[in-house]
Amino acid sequence: MSATPYDEMHAGDGQVREHYKTFASWLSRIPSERVARKRAEADTLFHRVGITFAVYGEEAGTERLIPFDIVPRIIPAGEWKHLAAGLKQRVRALNAFINDIYHSQEILQAGRIPAEQVLCNGQYRPEMQGIDVPGSIYAHIAGVDVVRAGAGEFYVLEDNLRVPSGVSYMLEDRRMMMRLFPELFALHSVAPVEHYPDLLLENLRSVAPTGVNDPTVVLLTPGAYNSAYFEHAFLAQQMGVELVEGQDLFVDDEFVYMRTTQGPQRVDVIYRRIDDDFLDPLVFRPDSMLGIPGLLAAYRAGHVTVANAIGTGVADDKSIYPYVPEMVRFYLGEEPLLSNVPTYVLRRKQDLAYTLAHLGELVVKEVHGAGGYGMLIGPAASRAELDAFRQRILRSPERYIAQPTLALSACPTFVESGIAPRHIDLRPFVLSGREVTLVPGGLTRVALREGSLVVNSSQGGGTKDTWVLER
Amino acid sequence: MLSRTADHLYWMARYTERAENLARMLDVNCRMSLLPQGAEVLEQGWIATLTIIGLMDAFRQRYDSVTSSNVIAFMAFDRDNPLSIYSCLRAARENARAVRGTLTSEIWETLNATWLEMREASQRPSTDAEVGNFFEWVKYRSHVARGVIQGTMLCDEAWHFTWLGTYLERADSTARILDVKYHLLLPHGEQAGGAADYYQWSALLHSVSAFEIYRRVYRDLITPRRVAELLVLRDDMPRSLRRCMSQVYAHLQAVRNSQSSETERRAGELQASLHFGRIESVFEMGLHEYLVRFLGQVRGLGDRVSRDFLVSATD
């Protein structure tokens, strides 16, 4: 880790960067009592509305508030333009890759990716082989995690193509910021994000099965005890679609219906927030109580669209991630605009040897892990932790990848001792349907502990409002 | 709307109404226990109440003697008794929680607060006076719940299913409360009369908030025939069978679907028989027999509502 990470607000000489100048001068004028009062107000409001999430592994039913920081993360117009173009490019390539993998597998035949990496991957779904999906779109919603190391230096950390969450916090953080400090929005021209639910609905409608003119869209949730239930209910309400559980849907003659008081009603598009494994007990996990028996048959018959498609996980697996730049070149014939983080794949002998020799400098991640569980941050680990992890790697090296610890950029953040820089990342949400769109912004997560690089909300991370300036 | 959503709303309303009516039934017996009377008469009152709710056997398995404190512990606070006030308020809140997104935040907060207070109340022992206050509180929270539904909810399908649940439950409860009297009078017959009888009838009127209404409507002595007329046939009496059934019929018409015509017909038929009925024919048939038949019809309607709207038959 470099000693001085890139500071989003201040240049090396301590000068405030151009795009933060207005904010910094506002912050210097505002009395500290008012800031304290507003921060307390934000806490109360988040509690009252019930914007909480459940934490796995803690006492049952624990609900926690995700800390909200009032210093926004500001992205100048030029940087966003580059970032947005890079994100769209990447997601287009990923969709092309998934479509290829489930059809003619040209990229494997061309030898650009080792076939066994893909076909023996647990996330590859043979059930999807040869099936055409509307518009050849698989990842309708992608939550791409981006970090900045230096000026103009953005890296993609993860692509999150299965059921990415967090967009409700992007929207609620903006709502909160406008409520607490309306004057700031008069001083800046901040690009709006509030139309995300409209874009999402439009996107979902655009991928309805062919021949359906006025598609019925539903949001499928695992239920009230899921950690992201608040977001499911929120998005369904904002889009004006039914929030359904598996038991509300059934399949008859390869069509999907929901049980309504007016009898069965055809469902055309399912925005599902349930993992592949639980979707259809007839095909996947037979013990799943969350899914709909027969859904895959209806899907294969082309009578319903599932978003994201079944089997997208094959493209956001950490062992496939190193090949994404290659996908951009192969399918689009373009050079990638956004970089990957250099990645050591530990199933390769020389990568394994390098990693074991440099364990103290690297971040090691489980290939199938998510949410920051099961990872090692070398520079922050004790000798004992390093040794324990070394044993785990040696037992099954194919389960791990390693990356250099990036000097994640930092953004000034309210902490106990005042305002201090804390590491951040960014998750913009890229929508793919008839076209590829994204709202200017995303969810900025912040690691609240000093020096920490882990921004996951399940590991004590907080969030910030993200401003893309229009000029 | 989703059948599951309608189902939760319907049962949210039924359980809220049921808790209130249980409080009313228990309250009237507590009041009667203050009258000078033998322990045997008092015990009969409780037995009649438990019988009419259908929990006499369940009670006997748990308790040796039929005393006020045992019955109240069982019917008000027992969390293992699925028909106790405690269990009803919990069920109302759980149903509301499952459809939070459909309810206004005021409705959710009201039912949630009721449940939280109920849980607290169940943890402290209560004296006779406090039990009276507790029943008043249950009724009050039910009034608040109805008011907040009336005052904040969009009058759409969800609203109709909520009221359908409320009025079906109330029809059932009023018929049961009236039938308790039959069990009490059984040894004496209809002509019993006397001071004790007067107090029993007036306690019954109190339990359905109808004592003052009776005085206003009849300006005369309390007679069994008129009490029955008030609670069965009066359209302007908010808890009468006729009033409940005309509401049930109206809300059923508003949510009708392709398979609900027979349910609607039966509700309409029952409503018409109350509309055009005379109290003389009720007594010719026998009040108890009449009420038993009515309870069967209401139960049948409830089953049909579930089948037609709440759980889809298509699988």
Automatic annotation (TrEMBL), chain A:
Pfam families: CP_ATPgrasp_2. InterPro entries: ATP-dep_Glu-Cys_Ligase-2, CP_ATPgrasp_2, UCP005522. Residues 72-447 form the Circularly permuted ATP-grasp type domain. It comes from the Bacteria. This is Circularly permuted type 2 ATP-grasp protein. It comes from Steroidobacter gossypii.
From TrEMBL, chain B:
It comes from the Bacteria. Residues 1-310 form the DUF403 domain. Signal peptide: none annotated. InterPro entries: ATP-dep_Glu-Cys_Ligase-2, DUF403. This is Alpha-E domain-containing protein. It holds the Pfam family Alpha-E.
